[in-house]
Amino acid sequence: MPGLDTVTNGRILFGGDYNPEQWPEETWREDVRLMKDAGVNSVTLGVFSWSRIEPQPGAREFGWLDRLMDVMHAHGVGVVLATPTASPPPWVGHLHPDTLPVDQDGRTEWWGGRQHFSHSSATYRRLAAAITEDLAARYGGHPALTMWHINNEYCTYDWGDEAAARFRHWLRARYGTLDALNEAWGTAFWSQGYGDWAEVHTPRRAHYLKNPTQVLDFKRFTSDMLLECFTAERDIVRRATPHLPVTSNFMPLWAGQDAWRWAAEEDVVSVDLYPDPRDPLGAQHGALVQDMTRSQARGPWMLMEQAAGPVNWRGVNHPKPRGLNRLWSLQAVARGADAVCYFQWRQSRQGAEKFHSGMVGHAGEEGRTYQEVKRLGADLARISARVAGRHTVNDIAVLHDWHAWWASSQEARPSAHVEHADVLHAWHRALWESHLTTDVAHPEHDLAGYKLVVVPQLYLLTDTAIDNLLAYVRGGGTLVSGFLTGVADEDDRVRPGGMDARLRELFGIRTLHEWWPLDPGEHAACDGFRGTLWSEEIEETDDAVVEASYRGGDLDGLPAVLRRDRAWYVSTLPEPGSLRELLARIAAGAGAAPVLADLPARVEAVRRGDLLFLLNHGREAVTVEVPGTHRNLLADTDTDTDTGTGTGTGTGTGAEVTDRITLGRYGVAVLSS
Ligand code: GLA
Known about the structure:
It contains 18 helices and 27 strands. Helix 6 (122-139) packs parallel to helix 9 and helix 15 (420-433) crosses helix 18 (576-590). The two termini are 34 Å apart. Alpha-D-galactopyranose is lined by residues 152-153, 272, 274, 305, 311, 343, 353, 356.
């Protein structure tokens, strides 16, 4: 299948969503001039253009899009063409109410916003396929077209009748018989046994707690239905243009899609990423999403959307201070992105997102936002030939799985404060702050190449995944796991003993007597650190090594951190600094080293191919020791303190850097040796 490299051809794609139907055609001319000045080489067209293309049922108004495609081609800007199926026109809902999704209370979600389509509606699927066919036929041969973008941020749920019919169909395929479904869902509890398939529904509003396995299956089903919508459109455009790659943009760490499964169906994996500029851990959140996306792509990936300035959907929407857009964009490149794109090119003056920034903001060409975009375009052009297509090799894998996430976020669990995504962030943060770079992997992936495998929390593990972890450790790997791992099987049935017996044996746990979740703000004193969120009453096996015990309280003297050989178990969430130290120690023991020794705290170092990216996430200038002689590929573009300055002089291929480099506020250096 064609990949991102067929589009990039040694460049980094730079651009964004372009929604010119909001603007008169004179503005298009200004747009292309500003795009050229900024080095924009790719735009995504048509994401929300359905009503413009098909204003009445069956109409096709392609003239404006023809002109636009031609204008883009004439100016050397490639087009990622979207199928407009994320926002059906009002006539679709008006004439075909069966296309509208229904919430769990039976209320219809109306048009007037976007994403008001039912993934299960046969009518929606038919109309979406028809417009996709016609787009593919019309533009498949257009020279501006580089890639297809299907829909946008698939994210809808539907509890309606048509969804229920498809849910039954999906369940029949999964279980075969009602007996098997009853067994998997544990319907013996609370008199829930099903005697006829017609009785099985989507998990609608219920008087009290819902059946957890029904809810888990509904999440699996929803991800699969959305995937069916994606693959239906993908297959249409593939038939027309087998030489062009197809993508659909993920939301970052979005709970609604099993992105491992989805990524396997995409030619290019792309993601939208909007860390809060005020969030002190915004860069780490970005790093986690980037690590995950690169791992899903198994190589270079596409940053489909980010914001050049503020978004408009937080309570308070902060702009990006000078330099931050460049820093976070280059962070994505360091972590494997071969495309740096935005929502959207030109900030809207009307509509729901008029206060969301654009690459060209309301302040226009003179505005700081556009000026910084322009500078970033020059930076990307400077490094692209050395960067595009390069892979990254990491020694550490952090495991994540959507099914474990879904199962662990049920109602009526031991602690409502334990959130899978928060725990994942906490463990990734500990590694990130130790300058240990990581991949993210699925628990059934081949892990043999990693020196260390980290399981922040995998509440649900299949037998295959457990076998995989055991084989990994048997093969010489080091494994460290957090609490609430291996608790349930794939039907969310608690495994005997409260945790899989083979895993207990692996970690040296004889008996897991009770979980002792902690209240918010409560701590569990342990040898040398404080635990948060959770603690456990564990009895160790004779051959286990207790690395730290609980001190005081009901668990006094019981193991908090234990291991057997190379398998570690951490039964609480140590405070951030302590988890960092613990993981740094375990990583060192496993032979996984930080990218550079003695890095200042706010500096991130990432290797991509033979390049070393240094990113200063602080507002203060900082000097980094980089033994040897290098060239800073970014240094020629700017000599002010925003960028890295070396001890040597600039040349055509970057300034020479010997032994140390100073990075200004939000400064970045890309060093080649
Ligand atoms: C998402 C969508 C865009 C836009 C941005 C705003 O990423 O895909 O259409 O709404 O959010 O942040």
